[in-house]
Design goal:
With 94 residues, the chain is mostly helical. The chain contains four helices and no strands. It starts with a helix and ends in a 5-residue tail after the last helix. Pfam families: DUF3817.
């Protein structure tokens, strides 16, 4: 389960950065690019984000995270590069 969480954390972080970069490149009035580019990336990021949160709940006990650590793991999913930090610092035994 820990390997799956690490993999999901990395993919979630990458999808977040790709989505953010594409949001800066696509102009708001260009609906064609939005539907072809941002929508699929946003959907993938949303699925990975939900997977990250659920997996964090599932491995909380096996990783012996305190409530503070668990809160940090959850908040990191909202920050760019946060999941990469969590994957290196908080996830053990993978």
């Amino acid at each position: 389960m820990t390997k799956i969480f690490k993999f999901t954390a990395i993919l979630e972080g990458i999808s977040y950065l790709v989505l953010f970069a594409n949001m800066l490149l696509v102009k708001p009035n260009n609906m064609i690019l939005y539907k072809k580019l941002l929508y699929p990336i946003g959907m993938a990021h949303g699925v990975l984000f939900i997977g990250y949160v659920i997996l964090a709940f599932l491995i909380k006990k096996s990783q012996n995270w305190s409530l503070k650590d668990f809160f940090i793991v959850q908040i990191a999913s909202l920050l760019p590069f946060g999941t990469f930090y969590i994957e290196k610092k908080y996830v053990k035994n993978a």
